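Continued from yesterday's entry.
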Amino acid sequence: MILYKFKSLHNIEYVFDILQNQRLFCTKYTNLNDPFEGVFLTAIHMNVLGFPFINQKPYKVITPKKVEDLHIELEQTKVCSLSANFSDVRLWSLYADSHKGIAIAIDFSNIESKLHEVKYSAKLPEFGNTILTSPIPSEVLSKKTDHWKYEAEYRIIQDSDYYLINDRIKAVYTGQRVSSFHIELLKKITPVEIPIYITRLNTENVLIESDKLLR
């Protein structure tokens, strides 16, 4: 499975770290761009007296909660986001600095179990609210609303700051608007065994696609 990490070149030291140290940085979930990140709904079935359901017709009480309400150490919950979608113009616009950045192709073959595929739905996820039914952080953080479905996101969710990807970087793709200065810089900091491609606009299908090999 090939996934893509979109990056701006404004802080090129972060790109250098990925390419040279062969690792991905995982950030705290509160740093992610979705304001509903980590928010979920809990459901309790109550009886007419306001107690949990006991031999009476119940009604359901929905309460919004956040990952921090699960009483876990948030410092131990780190996320790295990747995408299975290379060609959507919105991904390049949002995460590759309006096409002035890059996409790094990473091969996750044989380690797919390390990934959490994000599942999308029209509403916030709903979980129970007991010791047995409360979710774990990775269950909440691998669910998002349909607004983000185009991202086709996969996540690394772990307690460490970095996830090693030794020998798994397969290519670097430059955005439509990458400057000649950054092109030359990328050629210098990208290991010689990793090819660099430019991208082009597919005007028929309104997609971004790989074009010629730069190196």
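--- second protein ---
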Amino acid sequence: LASVSWGSEMCIRDRIITIVQGVLTGMVYVSYCWYSLAAVREERPGWKEAFGAFTQMPLKGLVTVVVKTVIISVLFMLCYVPGIIACYWLRPLEYIIKDNPELSIFHAIGKSVRMMKGHNLELLKLDISFIGWYLLEIFTCMLGGIYAVPYAGFTYAEFYDYLKGQDELYG
């Protein structure tokens, strides 16, 4: 009986650690997106901007991570295809939050879905174009990531600026 109790305590502790780790990883990803966007726009971001989700808008970054994760997870539980589509619909969400901090998370989600309408295939092609870089990263024990990760981040930030321009032109 004592071993069962110990096992369930370990399980709960492990789940809490996994959730905290996931949230922190998500916040780092949001910061990475914001930093890439600033760099692409030639705003010369510094170390403070490198952790923007923790320093500039921590609550907004946290809510973005949690809501996006919940939406994608629920849709993946229904079936893989809706989950994959949701991943593409919500891809520009972090950038939208950075550009429009006054928007609520649900308005930002609506804007993200609207911006991605008709552009999912373009983003899929862009993702496929990075397969070689990711393989290089794997085969070089992550040393290829020194070049590949910033290259991909800046490319996705440029793609967001393209989407934003399309949205402003055609509404």
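The mean pLDDT is 91. The two ends are 63 Å apart (CA to CA). Will compare against the first tomorrow.
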